[in-house]
Amino acid sequence: AGERERREESLISVAGDGNKMANKLIGEMGLHIRISNIFAARNIITAKDALSKTEFELMELLDVGMKEIKSAVRLISEATSPPCQSARALLEQKVEKEHLSGHLPTHLKGLDETLCGGIPFGVLTELVGPPGIGKSQFCMKLALSASFPAAYGGLDGRVVYIDVEAKFSSRRVIEMGLESFPEVFHLKGMAQEMAGRILVLRPTSLANFTESIQELKDSILQNQVKLLVIDSMTALLSGENKQGAQRQHQLGWHISFLKSLAEFSRIPIVVTNQVRSQSRDETSQFSFQAKLKDGLQEHTKTYDSHLVAALGINWAHAVTIRLVLEAKSGQRIIKVAKSPMSPPLAFPFHITAAGISLLSDNGTELKGPGINTIHARGHSDMIDFHGECS
Q1: Alpha carbon 164 to chain centroid, angstroms
Q2: What family does this chain come from, according to its entry (predicted)?
Q3: pLDDT in tens, 288-308
Q4: Domain ranges for the chain
Q5: Is the dihedral of CA 17, 23, 28, 29 positive or negative?
Q6: Which residue has the higher pLDDT, 96 or 256?
Q7: Are 272 and 232 a contacting pair, CB within 8 Å?
Q8: Is the dihedral of CA 133, 130, 212, 260 positive or negative?
């Protein structure tokens, strides 16, 4: 039983550490040359090949005794199972690698404090919300921040902005810069230099987008790219005719690639996600929905528009940070709905000439279904850039 548990732990370790552990070669694990050759002759080449079979299966397949099988399995398990580490050891490793980590400031004090510095490097951060709520405004301000000189709180780098719906505006970015950092943007040539650091791509199809991001992997480090924005991923997929399993397969590939790109390049990747109405046959019911019976007909009365993120649960699991932008009772709110470094918090905001601005740096903690629900009641898309909705 103990041996079986050890093998199961090894399999879990293999799954958790991905292909690196699963594809460890048996020939490099220090087994006796004779038993190693027998494994190879039966086409059992990697740790995964061996540990996915029971000891009895291996005994029959390799035609050797149980004692030798147990010894070989034990050595393979030990070679593929990473040693346990204490929380202190993990913290020390994190400190040693601190130069590889970092954050892109949003210049929203309360939000930056909540996220321990801003949008983190090396992971996917998602902005989700209804149309006109301010997702693109947020992304343009982040692009400005990443291209800004380090002496003024920026990353002093280039930005790749994938503008699927043609919402990016160089004029708006310069306006934000002039209003937010007048002491810098009024310097001669600074506005042109900052705008020149933001490369805008407008893919015409999902295939075109896929080709672009594959090419980016080789050029990000060479060109000092400090931020990748995709606005929006939902719009890319909605232009495809594929449904069901094919659509999920496409999304799964892009999730894996973007996570890999973020980890490889150690830059923040920010992706916007649109919303959809929750259908009646979905099982979740919320307090703002009530059913009324009138004769033989049953109606659903919705007291507030309930929306959900369009890309689904697999995408939600893939992102590390989820920021929800919503409008409730006429007020815009940005929620930290998912973050490993903070509880769910909500901040009211408005949009001015300088971009998104928090009305308070003190977030309100969220509990229950309010964390993930998305509201759009009382919201107008018209903004006068003085913080008031018209």
Answers
A1: 18
A2: Belongs to the RecA family. RAD51 subfamily.
A3: 333 434 444 444 444 344 677
A4: 1-79, 96-280+305-371
A5: positive
A6: 256
A7: yes
A8: positive
Token pair of 241, please? 């005719």
The torsion angle over the Cα atoms of residues 40, 46, 50 and 51, rounded to 10 degrees, is 170
Query: Before 232, cis peptide (omega within 30)?
Result: yes
Rounded to an integer, what distance in angstroms lies between the CA atom of residue 341 and that of residue 321?
Answer: 9
Q: Please give the pLDDT value at position 324.
A: 92
Q: What is the pLDDT of residue 344?
A: 93
Between CA 238 and CA 230 the distance in angstroms is 14
CB within 8 A of 133, min separation 6: which ones?
Answer: 325, 326, 327, 332, 376, 379
Bridge partners for 375 per DSSP: 306
Confidence (pTM): 0.66
Contacts of residue 223, defined as CB under 8 A and 6 or more positions apart, other chains included, come to 158
CB hemisphere CA count around 59 (13 angstroms): 10
Q: Identify which of 178, 182, 183, 219 has the alpha carbon closest to the alpha carbon of residue 195.
A: 178
Per the listing, tokens 């099988």 go with 69
CB 17 within 8 A of CB 31: no
Look up residue 146 and give its two tokens.
């990443």
* Each residue's pLDDT tens digit, 173-230: 989 989 988 888 888 888 888 888 999 999 988 888 888 888 887 788 788 899 999 9
Cβ neighbour number for residue 42 with a 10 Å cutoff: 14
Structure tokens at 205: 């199809």
d(CA 173, CA 332): 21
The CATH architecture one would assign to domain 96-280+305-371 is 3-Layer(aba) Sandwich (3.40)
Say which residue the tokens 């039966």 belong to: 42
Total residues found in the chain within this entry:
390
The 3-class secondary structure across 95-107, one letter per residue, is HHCHHHCCEECCC
DSSP string covering 61-85, please? HHT--HHHHHHHHHHHHHHHSPPP-
